[in-house]
Amino acid sequence: MVKRPDYGFRVFQVPPTARRPRSTRRWGHSEKSPEDGQACAFELLASLAGKLLQESESSASSNAIEGNHHHAFSHSVVEKERQGEVSPLIAKGVHNGSCAESIFMTKMESEKSSQKCLEHAETDCVLECVSVNNSCISECREKIDAHVNSKDLRLENKFVHNSNRLVEIPEDVRESCDANIKNGFRQGQEASNSGFKESTSDDKFSLKDPLELCINSPALIDLNGDVRSPFCRELFPKASFSRHGNNNRLGFRDDDENFLRRNGVRTKSKAFRPPQHIACRRIRQMLTSKHRKVTPNLKYYGHSRTDEGVKPLYRKRKTCYSFERSRHSTLFKRRKFFRRSIVITSDGGLSSDSVSNSPIKGMDVDNSNSSAKLHVSKDSHVKFSIKSFRIPQLYIEVPRTATVGSLKRTVKEALMAMLGGGVHVGVLLHGKKVRDDNITLRQTGVSCEENLNKLGFVLEPGSLQASPAVCVGEPSRCKTSQPTRSPEAHVLDSGITDALPDSSLLIKTGNLVESNHDSTSFSTDTISDKITTNDRVLVTVPTRSTEPLAVVPAGQKTRYSEFVQRRTRRPFSVSEVEALVEAVEELGTGRWRDVKLRAFENADHRTYVDLKDKWKTLVHTAKIGPQQRRGEPVPQELLDRVLAAHAYWSNHQAKQHGKVPKLEP
DNA sequence: TTTAGGG
DNA sequence: CCCTAAA
After folding, report:
1. Does some domain include residue A30?
2. DSSP state, A564?
3. Cα distance between residue A5 and residue A425, in whole Å
4. Closest residue by Cα to the C1' atom of nucleotide B6?
5. Domain for residue A502, yes or no?
6. Which structural domain range is residue A501 located in?
7. CB A279 within 8 A of CB A364
8. Could you tell me which residue, A306 or A644, shows the higher pLDDT?
9. Can you list the positions of beta strands (E) in A533-584?
10. What digits encode the pLDDT tens for the residues A40-71?
11. Through-space separation of residue A457 CA and nucleotide C2 C1' in angstroms
12. Is the CB of A605 under 7 A from strand C?
């Protein structure tokens, strides 16, 4: 029992309210995914993933930790590639796994590629279509199925198959493309230029129990040529996808610690991380260090083990903030969107064909691999040519015991969760979001020559259902879906589509500006479910959990700080204020972490700094006249308590001479 | 990492 | 909300 200060504050109980039933959460269970028909592309990915997983596992067991070796699998692929025998669809495993890569290599540079080559490239098309355009998937799926089910499958290319199906290209298709591929390599083109990055790493890597699936840039959405705006969900002409090399990368990352634990071997794993990982990690660090808490938008329901609970890794202080989180091994332990936005940068009308030459670069803050053109014409119109969007990096962690099928579903769900609700578009200038929809491009400076290369577009999850809560294992173990920021995304009307010329994305200024909705309309209608536990822990679970994807700055990484997006404003509800007041009454004003733990333990979007700030504003609010207050009115009764507690604790603090009163039992 | 305050 | 010095 909490010993309360004796100034007569009454105890109140936050009325318990039920958490929104899981059944109402979209995609609450992936057994029956709503987009089954769209699983195809991700099944491809997952097939690769599954195979790589197998490979790395078997290798790990056989080779122990004798690192410094590429996986035999990798060797074989590399070797085949040197011999020009690699099919255009390439999977590659880098052993010891910190980062096994699988790459769809579909760069068909030559327009002379046979139609079969184009069909071949449909592998990528599927990915892209799935990403944004739902209507295309069935068509692409047929293509894939045709390949997969073909009798001509080359069984020896086992690195792209799983137990269920082969994802391989028929030989005749392969051969017809072979010359192109081979030539490409022999001409000194970097393998990475085709999305294939040959690892020269001789690093040691350990295997992590839960494999983390890292999809860096699974898709590029081509808006050139025949393709129209992805926002309008129109059919994508498939052929247009085949002309661009993509960097589709699957990276498996293993956990050093777990591996070491299992093997009793110590390596300097971090130091040996491949660049991809360093980059991954750096992004993550940057984001987390900025409190860019990537609250998961979804949890995954798994299928493999019912006795496995869920242990979301919310952040470093999870041990403190996750009192009840399962200690079980987890099927899907963590999912984070590191890049929570899809960014397109303009290149100021300069060359925009420079698809990133390396997966690393693609991850970098420096988004110099421009994918959009911007041109100011003499008629004072600004023409935007958006070449591609990139799907943000996803991190998915699954245990080794996860089935390939579950991995597939996980990948699919992650992507669908991110994009399934549609996307909104933000406009970035100098990396900062232009929030005012009602100012002109001229006012923003977009049309200024010097800003041509400072413009970017951001894709953001756009719908109410963009963040389904999915978790693995026993449903009761699933923690509350993490509340996320309300979108500040702006809805693009179809009017933009209408404004588009038939074969290229040209957004006319007027439409761009005027068709956007007001960005503030979202935060106000956020619906929150409030739950309390026996300890008056209050959690708000916005049903509209559509936190924008992280913004990838368009500028130089040295200016990264300029591009950190501000968190979406989330006004405190009266209930939250009540809980805060309650906690402060008991704990005082100098123990915000305790306040957080007591009353907002599950509200990950409220940091102790937030609570402290809110208290500060509450005190201020209580002091000013009611007519000066803004926002949702706080009951005067609460404000009175704020003032009382503030006065009490100020006095108390003074008397205690800074000593923190020990009120807890 | 937390606290405390200014911006 | 952000940033950050200071503890």
Report:
1. no
2. P
3. 51
4. A613
5. yes
6. 342-388+423-461+487-525
7. yes
8. A644
9. 538-542
10. 233 333 343 334 344 333 333 333 322 232 22
11. 23
12. yes
